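Quick question, first post here. What does this chain look like in 3D?
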Amino acid sequence: IETMAVGLITEAIQAEDILINKHADLIAMGRELMVDSNWLYRSAKRLGQENPYQYLPNSYGFYLRKRDKI
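> Answer (accepted):
Ran it through. Tokens below.
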């Protein structure tokens, strides 16, 4: 039976731990993504993804690349 974790998952490492420790097969994000529309980018960056911009639409990635250089 596949399971989904939902609720009060606010940080990337928290979601990653749930998956790695097999507490759930899927993470459902809701309110946190409404609160922080850059959550996916920030999470990819914190988890050490080589190119966190690839997870965003080009127009967002352009803005965040430029902002990170400041």
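The radius of gyration is 14 Å.
The mean pLDDT is 91.
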